[in-house]
């Protein structure tokens, strides 16, 4: 069964305004104007009446017609099969694997260990691998059954910003492998991960520069539409430093030194790009007020660059003590100590900035608290992943300054973060059932900013 043209949304190809005849067809009545009567007993207009005259002369009939046709269209669309819903499985679903891997990373960094903590971290790690494979399969099915959506995903003003989420998810899995793998699989795994580290570094650079180049080549942006999501293409670079910090603790001196140099370089690129976009975000807030309620979860994206940089820089500075080559800059132990001291004190500034953005982002949600004020989107995972960076950076600062109080604060934040992860996952499942996501014009691939998503090559049938 095909959707009649009068049931399409205004603006869609082929749409026409509904008439009273459509009402009778829907309800099984006659389509002949002279023989049909409305539910109120009012005779419909004669053959010379037009939809425009109907609009002005019979407003009560018009409302009934619009209500009935809209209801029928909704009932038809409610029966969309999963093949059509997969069409809206966007790149943003990789934020789910970013958040899950981030939780595993946080559990590895907890300084106060207890029996079973590592097992919980491994559970999140393995779950993340399963979810990552699931995401790969689902988005591949989307592009296979709806090939027109592949190019559209790179041109859409919102969805393309989340393409690097797949690279971040891959990098997070590599980070978790370096954390949990060698103690269970053996040192051979380090050799594999070192190769994958450089593969991930290349992917991070390609994804970051590629998405920004596509953005700057295909669209013009206005400051009033700016959100911290613009930082997202830099995220693949921001987890290179924390990964390098973990690897540098277990590799031999030569390879550890190469890893640290590469990690410092790429981490610096990611943070500096983010810092420049920060300035645009602050200017937007100063001139345009807070973003719309539906986009405010994305404000937490601003927390991540600072948090990951602190965790990465402090971790790499600690690894440098065993990674620096002999007679480095004339005195290897002195060079390592200077690097460690400078990294710790510099990180205090950046750590404080991360908390500043966190409180600004949390405070912006004050007016959004309450039922029916915010509809779920996959950007809700911004409540989790960027804040995993804040927690790991808190643990790093606590360790660098030997502060037990800061480490305890980090543990409290960890508990809250895990509860938040369960909350967001539950809301995602609820949103799928309520058709708030994986649904036409509901996800990050909806028409916006003048961009029209390509229509299916075939009619929707049920």
TrEMBL record:
GO terms for cellular component: membrane. Residues 1-55, 443-462 are annotated as: Disordered. Pfam families: SLAC1. It is a multi-pass membrane protein. InterPro entries: Mae1 (IPR030185), SLAC1/Mae1/Ssu1/TehA (IPR004695), Voltage-dep_anion_channel_sf (IPR038665). It is found in: Membrane. This is Malic acid transport protein. The keyword Membrane applies. Its main location: membrane. Residues 27-38 have a biased composition (Polar residues). PANTHER family: MALIC ACID TRANSPORT PROTEIN-RELATED, TRANSPORTER_MALIC ACID TRANSPORT PROTEIN, PUTATIVE-RELATED. GO terms for molecular function: malate transmembrane transporter activity. It comes from the Eukaryota. The chain crosses the membrane at residues 89-108, 120-141, 161-180, 192-215, 227-247, 259-286, 298-317, 337-359, 380-401, 407-429. Keywords: Membrane, Transmembrane, Transmembrane helix.
